[in-house]
Write the structure tokens for this entry.
Amino acid sequence: MTQTITKYKWFWAWNDDKEEAWLEEMASQGFHLISANFIANYTFEVGEPKKMVYRLDFYFDDRKKYQEYIQLFADAGWELVSEFGGWQYFRTEQVGSTIPEIYTDKDSKLVKYQRLMLYLTIFLPIFFMMLNINSPFTGPFGWLYNGVRIFMGLFFFVYAYAMVKLLQRINTLKKGNSQTKKH
């Protein structure tokens, strides 16, 4: 029987490089990712320590093209380990000192963050609508709806913060690209 452990660790979408480094560290200790989900819950299979490289990608496009997308990574030696909410978790074993990458240029990495930004932007009007709807509850349960609106308002600020941080990451990559292209 395979032994598994569960770890809880939170990463923001713009810190995917830190998440990848943590997963690689876990693999070097013999904990190999088998699933990840939105609530910062990671399940690992216990095994032999290995030098693994983990990379995350964000994909929410046409599900008909999804198999082609996964096959493209498989052909390049990447194994799809887990997926949730548009995030795809890939890994491959590190051989030698060369660290493989799923994106070999900054433009491709930039597109990943732009896809994520588009995804977040799509849901923005929903938050505005939920915050502006008048309460259907009156009487003793009116406070409940106000509590939900307060929660949604706080969630909106976290959401907006995430979008600002992603924009900063996108701008950093763009500046890096423009500096690279000038030389």
Summary: The beta strands are 4-8, 31-37, 41-46, 52-58, 79-84, 87-93. The radius of gyration is 20 Å.
